[in-house]
Every structure is written in structure tokens, then in C-alpha cells.
Write a structure and sequence with these properties.
The complex is a heterodimer of chains A (about 140) and B (about 140). With about 140 residues, chain A is α/β, with parallel strands linked by helices. Chain A is built from 5 helices and 7 strands; from the N terminus they run ααββαβββαβαβ. Helix content of chain A is about 40%, strand content about 20%. The mean pLDDT of chain A is about 75. Chain B has about 140 residues and is α/β, with parallel strands linked by helices. In chain B, α2 (about 80-95) crosses α3 (about 110-120). In chain B, strands 2-7-6-3-4-5 form a 6-stranded mixed beta sheet. In chain B, about 35% of the residues lie in helices and about 20% in strands. Classes of the chains: A alpha/beta (about 140), B alpha/beta (about 140).
Chain lengths: ~140, ~140
């Protein structure tokens, strides 16, 4: 049986005073750096949340609109049933109306020039108050 | 300045000197691997709307992207309205009922409604609008 190359694996310091490595570390660091850069660039830290909405019924059917609670988001403020009021008031009114008739759909109608963010705020407040049957519609053309 | 050539003392071995560096780099690597999650890059940049919603979105289901200027992308590919309509047919027939809508916070809301109407016409009943929580 040939002698095993024990000198390489020996824990005793080699006689030249320098520990010889089994693997050179430099290529390892190169690869680790590349992996690090890859993960830094490719991973996303966005913490997604979601709001569930019913997809809107086709506009132009007034029957569904009469039953529903219509909240308009306009450039000059929020309106519920044609009355301008604050978001808090709209939320409490909607909750009160839904307490009487829970299956009433709530429609949010943004005007032209209203950004998604503003509508999300309104929908958020309503959802937080427990309104489930939410959907967005748009003005009839 | 310390010479890079091996000198006397602790730094006789080059590898001994870079070991702490490797330790830190490994830690960073593990942090980024665990903390972030890999996701396909969107075809255009989206600044999602901020909401107080705490609902975690379903991971399943196709994503529809709506850009600030009303541009659309379906599952990573830029499409127009007709293209979206055509792209919706297959998943709806496969029984997908929930679609995720990733809209830019600055996009016109009317455009969002238009797309939701398109989804409704294709037979989709529920839409998950993706948002991000308020930054602390």
C-alpha cells in the first residue's frame, strides 16, 4: 500500500513556516463577490400588499347604479350622493348605509385626471371600515 | 500605508488577512439571499400606490402592469389593449379567477377602471390591486 500523502492534511505547521491552503481563496472570493452583486441587484425588498376589488360592471346600466352607493372622487373633493364631504364622513355614512342593507355594492367613480393613489386612499378607508363589495366604475361616455 | 507584500507578524499569510473580508461578504450574501426575493424585472418602472392594507397578495396568478402613462404589460410583456384582451383568453379558460393589477400610483384612475372593465368583459370577477405599505 502506498503511503498516504499525510503531509498536506497535517495540522502541524509545515516546516517552511507558511500554512499551505488546500484551496486558494482568491477564486472563491471572486465567485462570492459575483453572487453577492447578483443577489443585491436581483432581489427586491418591496413588501407587497393587495386590495381586492370586484371588477366593475359595464358602464351604462343604470339599474345597478340606483342600488349602489356612489362615491365620486373629483379634483375638488369627494362626493357621496352629490354632496361634497370629507373621507371620514363618507366612510361612516357608507358603513351606516351598509348596516341597513349589507349587499349593497359600493362604487367608487374617479373623475378624469384623478391618480390611482387618490382612489386607493378612498378604497383603503372604506375597506378598513369593513366595506367588502367595492368596485370602481367610470363616468358614462 | 501597509505593504501588500507579506511582512512580518500576523500578516505573513495573505489568506489570513482576507479571511475577515470573506466572512463579511458571506454574511452579506446570505442576508441578501434570505431577505430579498427574486422577481422578474418589470418591462417598465412602476411606483406602486401606498395603502394601509395589510392583506398579503396571492402569489399565484398573472400580473397586469399599468404604467404612469397608461402603458400595459401582461406577465412581463408589453401589450396594447387588444393584445391584453387576447392574452386574457387563455388564463381565463384555464380557470384563473384572480388577476393582480400592478398600477403606478400616478397613473390615471380612469385608465385603471378601463382595464378592469376589460377584465370583467373577459370573465374575471376579482382583481387584486397591488400596493405597498407606507414607508416608516
Amino acid at each position: 500500500m502506498p503511503a498516504l500523502p499525510t503531509a498536506r492534511l497535517s495540522l502541524a505547521p509545515p516546516n517552511n513556516g507558511r500554512r499551505r491552503n488546500l484551496i486558494s481563496l482568491t477564486p472563491l472570493i471572486d465567485v462570492v463577490f459575483i453572487l453577492l452583486v447578483f443577489f443585491m441587484l436581483a432581489s427586491s425588498f418591496l413588501n407587497w400588499r393587495s386590495i381586492t376589488l370586484d371588477s366593475p360592471k359595464q358602464t351604462g346600466r343604470s339599474a345597478s347604479l340606483e342600488q349602489a352607493l356612489l362615491i365620486e372622487v373629483r379634483a375638488d373633493g369627494l362626493r357621496l350622493a352629490g354632496e361634497t364631504m370629507s373621507l371620514d364622513r363618507i366612510t361612516s355614512r357608507a358603513v351606516a348605509a351598509l348596516a341597513k342593507k349589507p349587499d349593497r355594492p359600493v362604487l367608487v367613480r374617479p373623475d378624469d385626471g384623478i391618480a390611482v393613489q387618490e382612489v386607493v386612499q378612498v378604497v383603503d378607508a372604506l375597506a378598513a371600515a369593513g366595506v367588502a363589495n367595492l368596485s370602481l366604475i367610470r363616468r358614462n361616455k | 500605508m501597509r505593504s501588500l507584500r507579506p511582512g512580518p507578524g500576523r500578516g505573513t499569510n495573505d489568506d489570513d488577512r482576507i479571511l475577515p473580508l470573506i466572512n463579511v461578504v458571506f454574511l452579506l450574501l446570505i442576508f441578501f439571499m434570505l431577505a430579498g426575493h427574486l422577481a422578474a424585472t418589470d418591462p417598465f418602472h412602476i411606483e406602486p400606490p401606498v395603502s394601509a392594507s395589510e392583506t398579503e397578495p396571492d402569489e399565484a396568478g398573472p400580473v397586469i402592469l399599468v404604467g404612469t402613462d397608461g402603458r400595459l404589460a401582461f406577465d412581463g410583456k408589453t401589450v396594447d389593449d387588444a393584445g391584453l384582451k387576447a392574452a386574457l383568453v387563455a388564463p381565463v379558460e384555464a380557470g384563473v379567477t384572480h388577476f393582480r393589477l400592478k398600477a403606478d400610483g400616478g397613473a390615471p384612475a380612469v385608465r385603471l377602471v378601463e382595464i378592469m372593465e376589460l377584465l370583467r368583459a373577459a370573465g374575471v370577477r376579482k382583481v387584486n390591486v397591488l400596493t405597498v405599505p407606507k414607508a416608516l
